[in-house]
## 1
Amino acid sequence: MNLRLLASTPAVETLIATAMLTTMSGAAPSSLYSRLIFNPTKVAEIVGRLEVQHGSILEHNRLNWLLEAGEGEVLKVLLVNRFFTFTRFGSNQWLVSANLRTVIEYATLGDEFGDLLLESIREKLPSVYAFGRRGR
């Protein structure tokens, strides 16, 4: 099994931090975003306080991957979590789409696909990656 992140919602961690602060602050979201976009340390601190639940701000984004895996491996993932979308490209190639809540919840299982999901976001989303590693 091989997984490669292709694309994600831009500045996901900053958007998450902005959404978290918006619920606790009287400041306008655009103002919060403008302050956070150039402060990755503050973003990491805020994102570190995430919670995974229905309605979580982790649901309001999209990530896309290219997956090389057999049909049985894909079926296994779908049977565990129905919030992944798989589109077949070839016999063993799939476009996979999900949000970060789905990624974090699946990663807690500790199987190969969960490990690959976390590794795929390590560089682009280091604070969410760290949050996902703590939940295992």
## 2
Amino acid sequence: MSTRVHSAQRVWDLPTRLGHWLMALLVAASWWTAENHQMEFHRYSGYLLLGLLVFRLYWGVAGSSTARFAAFVRGPRTTWDYIRSPAAGEPAGHNPLGAWSIVALLTLLSVMIGLGLFAVDVDGIESGPLSAHVSFETGRACAHWHHRVFNALLALIGLHLAAVLYHWIWRGRNLIAAMIHGRAPLAQGSAVEHAGAVRLIVGVVLAAVVVWCVV
């Protein structure tokens, strides 16, 4: 029996969508500035990424229902059942496999940013804002792994894009468009709880305070 769906409704709120695209843009900017030795701008992009990361982690607890980790992260059994039978239906928001992809991306991003805060370059001139708290050798090790983790992040982003193309071409679901306008079909009986302005303001202030303390 096929699952009855309503017409497209707003599934992704503006903070989730804006944060998604800004994070993608800033990862690209961080790569470009590092490759072209624009380290001052590299630091700025890193600070902005840190703020976005803090906000996304907060939003994963206090945001709209489709943004909350507790609402879309599922256990191994549910994830395996989805892999075996993806045609059984798509939930509102992230599917179980996509949820673990988001968790992995945010984890690698957290590690990469954390290492960058303590990283030291060869000359000890271009360094992260917290590098004074570690030895030169530790700072160099952080810089080395900062680069390695970024490469792992790029590989995971590649898999993420491949999954988006798979859903678009073979499943007929345009996830890119949904992350732009925020609308997607909902199964009958499903509903999305959207967070209010107060939670949004708290998240923005929290992110700004964390970045200010680090910088």
## 3
Amino acid sequence: MANYRRGRINDEVTKEVAQILREVKDPRVRDAFVSVTGAEVTPDLKYAKIYYSFLNGDEKELRRGLKAASVFIRGGLAKRMNLRITPELTFVRDTSLEYGAHINKLLSKVEDELAEIDAREAAAVELNPQDDEEE
């Protein structure tokens, strides 16, 4: 039961932090097109990891901007959510999209190699038709 509640809190924190990030005026955050991909709140609600991805900008500058804006974001979260304790926020870059793209690239490479092997085998069969006639 408690795990279900935590899942709902994680979803709500994700949604609210994403909305609050649109209000941040820091150009390091505003210009980076930050997307909140998830949140993980501890069972005691004291800490929350906010997973994000971004399109533009320098990662170090964005991290500094998020750290500077975390007080503002936490305050907005306290106003919007009715929690006994508002968690301290830690921002963690979500690399799952990049990892997925890397895996997709590897799978495409394997697929191309298999297609190349199949093409070579088909060409070899066409060059040696006597093998089929003997059977």
## 4
Amino acid sequence: MVTIMKKSWYKSKVFVITGASGDIGSEVCRIFAPLHMKMYLLDLPNPRLDELAKEILSLGAESVETFHVDLLNKEQTVDVIAKIGEKEKFIDILFNNAGIGSRCSITNDGTFEDYRKVMAINVDAIWIVLQTAMPFFSRPAPSKKYPNRKEGQLIFSSSAAGKTGVPYMAAYAMSKSAIIALADSIRLEFKMQNHKVDVITSVAAPADTKFYNTPEMVDWIKKYEKQGFLFKFVKAKDIAKRILKASRKHKKEIYTPRWWWLLGFLFVLSHNLIGNLLIKIEKEKITKSAKIIISYN
């Protein structure tokens, strides 16, 4: 039997999200806003963040506060998370959403500095946020059997790249795989401690976001989507809907679109199936690029 979180549970609870003003982050904020939560939006300084705050307040959030924070700055990150925790005493939902993409790998001259930047934002920053938030994360939900039990939700943005690997995106795929492993480990730890903490990992197919706005990535998209319906780009709003549903239904790992859970099944049958499709896409893109270079010469 699936237990559904009542909407009343969310009222006046504290919701903290990193990367709030991005395509996925902003849609998540919009979909959680009508639940009347106290929402804290963290992101790099940009006008979209303040505009988003006004919007979600109008959509029903109990209160909204923004923080400009660079997750590469450990001291700044720690300071912001600690301020929120000290003010509210509890953080009920912590959504580790911030991240960057990269065409960085070993065989395409990806530098160590490029690799470290991806890992610093996509993985190291999550560790810092979690470590700082733990004294405030989740609030008491005692029972006779477990008097020290706490209740809350951790949400992580991963990617299908963390399940399959992607040619010339090794750093990005590594970071997303690390997020999945981190979430799986923490989920078990909370279970061992008898807490009612949902650890939700969002594993999404490539999404229609600003991540793919460079000429190189736009070309990659065209080749990718030609492979059929399983490779259709998803919308940020659809990912947000899946995350809210996962929150209400206490899910662990969710896929967008839903049928992408087939990734694991297909890997059991043939680890090469999806990998070969990705290689085909990449080869076609390289061939096209070579033709362009020849024509310029």
